[in-house]
Amino acid sequence: MTDINAGGTFMLGDRSVRRMGYGAMQLAGPRVFGLPKDPAGAVAVLREAVASGVDHIDTSDFYGPHVTNGLIRAALHPYHDDLVIVTKVGAVRGADASWNPALQPAELVSAVHDNLRNLGVDTLDVVNLRITGAVHAPSEGSIEEPLSALAEPQQQGLIRHLGLSNVTPTQVEQGLSIAAIACVQNHYNLVHRDDDALVDSLDARGIAYVPFFPLGGFTPLQSATLSRVAARLEATPMQVALAWLLHRAPNILLIPGTSSLAHLRENLAATSLHLSDSVLADLDHIAAGPLDAASSH
Ligand SMILES: NC(=O)c1ccc[n+]([C@@H]2O[C@H](COP(=O)([O-])OP(=O)(O)OC[C@H]3O[C@@H](n4cnc5c(N)ncnc54)[C@H](OP(=O)(O)O)[C@@H]3O)[C@@H](O)[C@H]2O)c1
User: Fold this and answer.
1) In this structure, which residue's CA is closest to atom 31 in ligand 1?
2) 166-182: per-residue pLDDT in tens?
3) Which end of the chain has fewer surrounding CB within 10 Å, N or C?
4) Ligand 1 atom closest to the CA of 210, numbered from 1
């Protein structure tokens, strides 16, 4: 079993979690819709992640919909006290697998209850308010109404901590003026670094930054430099991409997604990969310009 302790820990709300976590989105069927081909395999991935020390799992009831939460419950319920499950609200799925905004107060409260029921818990550890924006990029606009709508279920004890997802730095500031924010979950990885300044400003305030698409998401990262560095370190490009995030800032918590046990083991092992200053400088060049064919969507 891989030891992920070398990756260290960081606070997620009032809980210390290991910085290497797991993102459950890939466990649903194709296009994150319906059941996976191999539900038993999905359960095995979840159980091995937790057995390896993962104590932070990212999910949403709109993955499937209801499918990843059902798999998490089947694999891990009753949950160990140390496990922090982070979910998100703000969208619903159409019958055609489309992703549709659901940010009205009643829709958000209903999503909280869906997550409680399908995860089988009385309180959700962390609920991220997922703002729609432009697909996987944020766009400006007030988040006051939807964030305030989550205050009531929080006061009722249904939510322990609130987080934000797919938000701009301005929206983060607005969010912090309305509620305590435990984490921000945005698109960020070795080649997609729009949030560099936000990562640092959250670090200065002790707030976790959780990059989604840490490996490039639906289009896994490709870069000649990354492959070259990985070969030199006798690691895989994905391990180097994850190790780079762990080196990037102490408040970064990882939630790489996979439906494969082999990929899970490979990803967890990235916690032991040390990157020297010269390697970090080489990797920094990937985002700095079109030096090679770096890509991520
Ligand atoms: N807040 C948001 O709007 C938002 C958006 C997207 C995702 N998320 C969250 O972020 C988590 C991570 O994002 P993600 O899962 O979309 O993307 P990701 O972690 O960047 O990449 C996952 C993709 O990489 C593949 N992969 C994983 N490990 C690999 C390895 N070692 N070698 C080769 N390929 C590998 C996976 O395929 P295999 O299954 O074949 O391994 C999958 O196709 C999600 O699970 C979800 O919880 C949040």
Assistant:
1) 263
2) 999 999 999 999 999 99
3) N
4) 10
| The predicted structure's pLDDT at residue 3 | 84
d(CA 273, CA 129): 33
Closest C-alpha residue for ligand 1 atom 21: 217
d(CA 246, CA 275): 10
State how far the Cα of 69 lies from the Cα of 121, in Å rounded to an integer. Answer: 11
Nearest CA-CA partner of 23 in 160, 213, 198: 213
Active-site residue, 63 included: yes
For residue 249, which phi and psi values (nearest 5 degrees)? -165, 145
Q: Is pLDDT of 288 > 70?
A: no
List all residues 6 or more positions away from 276 whose beta carbon is below 8 Å from its beta carbon. Answer: none
Q: Which pLDDT tens digit goes with each residue over 265-278?
A: 999 999 999 999 99
Interval between CA 245 and ligand 1 midpoint (Å): 14
| Nearest CA residue ID for atom 26, ligand 1 | 258
Answer for the pair 64, 32: CB distance below 8 angstroms, yes or no.
Answer: yes
How far apart (Å, rounded) are the C-alpha atoms in residues 92 and 119? Answer: 17
Q: Does domain 5-288 have CATH number 3.30.230.10?
A: no
pLDDT at residue 256, rounded to an integer: 98
- Secondary structure (H, E, C), 35-66: CCCCHHHHHHHHHHHHHCCCCEEECCCCCECC
Amino acid, res. 53: G
Q: What is the pLDDT of residues 70-106, one digit of tens each?
A: 999 999 999 999 999 999 999 999 999 999 999 999 9
Selecting among 63, 79, 188, 209, the annotated active-site residue is: 63
Does ligand 1 lie within 6 Å of residue 18's CB atom? no
Using an 8 Å Cβ cutoff, are 127 and 157 in contact? Answer: no
Taking a C-beta distance cutoff of 8 angstroms, is the pair 211, 254 a contact? Answer: yes
Does the beta carbon of 294 lie inside 6 Å of ligand 1?
A: no
User: Phi and psi of 138, rounded to 5°?
Assistant: -80, 160
